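wait is this the right file?? whatever heres the structure
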């Protein structure tokens, strides 16, 4: 029904409402703006979902363990299928989502998409952006030592 009328759902979600995402973000009050648009693909007649997610999240830098702002701006287009067999018939490499008969909550779709868009290892772009005090406490000096010798931190460990 949504695709027949090219329905577009838009709204805001707080990170705190999304349990898996809230574990990865430092601020549960951060807001995610999401838009979901359903349509039938011309030619194939496949049900498609176009999703846009945007927001400013605060992650933890894995280099200095301090707060790191991260801009979320992601768009995807997914084929919506009923079962894994239908997914196997899609063109190779086509992104898809298997939607059970009872449906999927839009918030769950948004959370999954944001999780997929997050960086694998969140880090400030340059070591110089890291919290200098925290880097010193972690034994990284100003961050240059870790870059020149990735095992340099191990020299401080005593067994």
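ok assuming it is, sequence goes like this
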């Amino acid at each position: 029904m949504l695709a027949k009328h090219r329905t577009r759902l838009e709204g805001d979600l707080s990170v705190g409402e999304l349990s898996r995402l809230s574990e990865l973000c430092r601020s549960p009050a951060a807001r995610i703006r999401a838009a979901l648009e359903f349509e039938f693909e011309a030619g194939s007649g496949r049900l498609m979902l176009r999703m846009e997610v945007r927001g400013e999240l605060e992650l933890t830098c894995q280099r200095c363990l301090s707060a790191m702002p991260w801009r979320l701006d992601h768009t995807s287009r997914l084929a919506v299928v009923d079962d894994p067999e239908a997914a196997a018939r899609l063109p190779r490499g086509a992104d898809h989502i298997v939607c059970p008969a009872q449906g999927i909550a839009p918030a769950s779709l948004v959370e999954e998409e944001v999780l997929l868009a997050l960086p694998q290892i969140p880090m400030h772009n340059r070591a110089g952006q890291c919290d200098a005090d925290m880097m010193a406490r972690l034994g990284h000096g100003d961050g240059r030592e870790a870059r020149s010798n990735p095992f340099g931190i191990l020299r401080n460990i005593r067994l």
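The chain is about 20% helix and 30% strand. so i think its the right one actually
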